[in-house]
Amino acid sequence: MSPKARTNPTARKVVGSLGVIGAAAAVAGMGTFGSFTASTSPVSTTVSTGTLSINLTQQGYAIPVSTNNFVPGDTLTRAVNLTNGGSPFSAIALSTTAAAPTLLTTDLTNGLQMAVKSCSVAWTQGGTASAPTYSCSGTTTNLGSGPISGSLQLNGLNSLAAGGTDYLTFAISLPTTADNTFQGKSAALTLTFTGSTATGGAR
User: Rounded to two decimals, what is the model's pTM?
Assistant: First the structure.
């Protein structure tokens, strides 16, 4: 038998012996660092996220609405009911965007203006479909006014609270200061009420 053939069986035995020794050392180590443990009873905690829901319904004459031959001093008014169908809000804003900017929306002083009011009860509607009027038999509150382009923060709304409803009118007007440069202009407007929650904090 050659020297090479005699060496291989020995090499296998040595390797096998090292493996056994290593395993034994591992078992001894596990016993050396043992410790007692204890745990508390489970504490049940449930976290549920809120649901944001804000609903807009029309009162009386239909929206959307189109009006022609608007001149300085004219006002277009419509009524809506705003209801919170979910969790409480910290703020609600009315924003208006124009499909294509024109002088009616870019001139913040002489261009179209927006005013929002609330009534403590539902508005009483009069007039005609093309020129409705609204009167409040309860308490009227001016919620905000300003240029048509941008956002109005509406404060003190009932709809900030879950289940709350506000009876609102929005009025779009063209100031009497609008001059001849406003002739022949048009604006396709989108009005959106947006509710937001408060910044997260400790509970």
Answer: 0.70
